[in-house]
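Weekly sync, protein design subgroup
Attendees: M.S., D.O., the rotation student, P.L. (late)

Item 1: inverse folding check
M.S. brought a backbone from last month's batch and wanted to see whether the design step gives back something sensible before we order anything. D.O. pointed out we never logged the input encoding, so this time it goes straight into the notes. Structure tokens as presented (324 positions):
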């Protein structure tokens, strides 16, 4: 008689292993089948949802009421956001006539140049917030003067933040004309479109056209500014923090940075062979010590290029009707 027959443990063991393998195989097959079924059901549901979202809205009375309710809710949310952000924005500039704005610009330019000198920060020659043309000529009218006054307040805030950050210099400062300077209606946030020859729209195209409910330019105006500054890493960081930490008290202007590039001022790298002479330092009230090293890394200046938008909430608040 073989030892396998004599030892009953081995047949029982291999029988259990075989049964377990068959069981695991069945469970794996069942799980795979269930997963495939669930995946197919998910894809079918997703396709149905996509089809529903692309389908044209059935023009029933219930759908019209539902759409109107959603549109009203959306506009209410825009108004609420407008109200909340309005608390973080400086109050609208006082009524200014062209002469009053010119005097305000002259004062701001004089003050900022003096502040730069006091803070040992170099500014471009004849710094005037890139509004120099209004120092020699009046703004066209009072509406433009008032809008320019608000823009000047924000430009002054940005420049003052740069001076107080400990930068070495403001190398370049330029701004894009605001909408009303370009001839757009006050508060529209957009420049006027060029006139084009009128063309009767195709009926099918008109049917497919989806009228815009509310454009960004109806709510806000982006007033672009570009500034190039040079300073130590910590001074550039301080400037970015000052622009980011908007609050009604300290920074009543909404500023967004669209593009930021920072590069080392010295392109050849650190001067590792810098010669340092030991020197005894005797600080008042402290023990003297020997200074025999200087900081190398982190002690170089960097140049930062900032493309920014001053975000102004249009006034009065936007309003839009609903359409079925």
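Designed sequence read out in the meeting:
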């Amino acid at each position: 008689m073989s030892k396998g027959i004599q030892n009953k443990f081995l047949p029982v063991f291999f029988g259990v292993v075989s049964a377990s393998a068959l069981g695991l195989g069945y469970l794996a097959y069942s799980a795979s089948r269930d997963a495939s079924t669930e995946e197919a059901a998910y894809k079918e549901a997703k396709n149905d949802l996509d089809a529903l979202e692309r389908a044209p809205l059935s023009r029933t009375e219930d759908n019209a009421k539902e759409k109107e309710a959603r549109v009203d809710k959306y506009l209410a949310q825009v108004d609420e956001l407008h109200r909340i952000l309005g608390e973080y924005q400086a109050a609208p500039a006082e009524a200014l006539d062209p002469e009053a704005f010119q005097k305000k610009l002259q004062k701001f330019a004089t003050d900022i140049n003096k502040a730069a000198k006091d803070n040992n920060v170099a500014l471009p020659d004849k710094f005037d917030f890139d509004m120099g043309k209004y120092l020699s000529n009046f703004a066209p009218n009072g509406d433009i003067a008032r809008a320019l006054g608000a823009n000047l307040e924000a430009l002054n805030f940005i420049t003052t933040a740069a001076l107080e950050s400990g930068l070495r210099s403001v190398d370049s400062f330029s701004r894009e004309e605001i909408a009303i300077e370009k001839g757009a209606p006050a508060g529209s946030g957009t420049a006027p479109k060029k006139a084009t020859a009128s063309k009767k729209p195709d009926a099918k195209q008109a049917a497919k056209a989806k009228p815009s409910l509310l454009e960004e330019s109806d709510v806000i105006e982006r007033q672009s500014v570009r500034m190039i500054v040079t300073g130590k890493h910590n001074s550039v960081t301080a400037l970015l923090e000052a622009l980011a930490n908007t609050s009604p008290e300290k920074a009543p202007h909404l500023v967004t940075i669209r593009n930021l590039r920072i590069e080392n001022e010295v392109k050849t790298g650190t001067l590792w062979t810098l010669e340092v002479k030991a020197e005894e330092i005797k600080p008042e009230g402290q023990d003297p010590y020997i200074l025999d090293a200087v900081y190398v890394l982190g002690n170089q200046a960097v140049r930062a290029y900032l493309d920014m938008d001053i975000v102004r909430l249009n006034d009065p608040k936007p309003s839009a009707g609903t359409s079925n």
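Discussion: Strands lie at 169-175, 220-232, 254-264, 279-281, 289-291, 301-313. The chain has nine helices and six strands.
Action: P.L. to compare against the previous round before Friday.
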